[in-house]
Amino acid sequence: MKKKTSIIILTYNHLDLTKDCIESIRKYTEQDTYEIIIVDNHSQDETPEWLKTQSDLHVILNQENVGFPKGCNIGIEASARENDILLLNNDTIATTNWLNNLQKCLHSDPKIGAVGAVSNHGANLQACEFTYENFDEMQEKAQKNNVSDSSRWEEKICLIGYCMLIKREVIDKLGGLDEGYTPGYIEDNDLSLRIVKLGYKLYLCHDAFIHHYLGTSFRKDEQKFNQLILKNRAYFEKKWNFDVFSFDHNKNLSIFLAKDPQEVLDYHCEIGASLLRIHYLFPNAYVAGVESNLHKFAISKLVGNVTNNIEDLVKNSFDTIFIGNILEEVEKPLCFIHELKEYLKPGGYIIGEFSNISNIENFSLLLKDSWYYQNFQKQNHFTKSDILKMFLDEGFVDGYFYPFSKEVSADEMDICKKLSLNDEAKNTYYSFRFQKRII
Asked: Whole-model pTM above 0.90?
């Protein structure tokens, strides 16, 4: 028998979005497979009155705005005890087969604890592979996209909470969301790590798409939102002993330079975001990781073959080593390259990335006496020539750079002309690939 789902939706004003969200669920979700629980956080518009008229909704009207984590916990507590839990933002629109495909993935393996859908936004690399001009086109493309396909299920270290389906047994073990993040933000990062620590896996279902308007309450007051971010980042870091930016270190700006890797080392894999990304992009490759930070290592070892000491690995055993932007952080970059290449097979590649210190934006700041060194957090700063020389000095060949450029303002273009800077000054970031010489 198919397990039912309790869909938990929090509301706070924005009745128009809530109506569209609920109507899309009714239209695109198989009947008798779900219940909708609405927790209203004391809306000041017509939302409470409208909710009372909807006979198919389980409505809870809070007498104050208790925030997102506590509101979700109230909804979870009110759900049917045997149901899985789906946390869904009210600024989303469901599509054909969305929930069915999420359920297929969730229950395909007892080790999977939670799954998420892709959307029209790219945060956490959860964007869909298509664009659209209107909702009719969106629904048409979503129908073509939402064909269940296990090869499009990507293991992640984190799922964004706009649409997160969680097994009942996992929710029962967790006891709900951490209300220390009230009124909200970063609680989904925390929830993801707690699920992983229980020994479960997280998967992003590229075969399940929903539309997401991306925030309607938290982001309205920018100053208040920024204060909330700082508070919750500090709370997260105190709890986990690393910062929330670790979720973003996925090496995605350089992974694409790989040439059919078979034995891969993810150096400085942090909490495993890049490790899992490599697994998804190259499913037939053997992937190992190194992370020296013990707090991050404690997480990454749960999702992959990770050590905290590179000396545990066999030398000359990898055809591809991803290093991300680690050259900007190590004390002696040239020594680091020299030591790391010992683990690379002859003909193998080191692939990385770095910020281009000689870009026009930095020239402009220098000329305005506004370039403050402490604003640039990396220990080392490089130009393209610096990176090229270091690798050539270490005997590497076949150097390749991929540039990422910014839109240059009229003032910056004028500076380029006055200083006779070439087009590479427009490049703010580079990815690179160097091959170890075959002796």
From this structure: yes
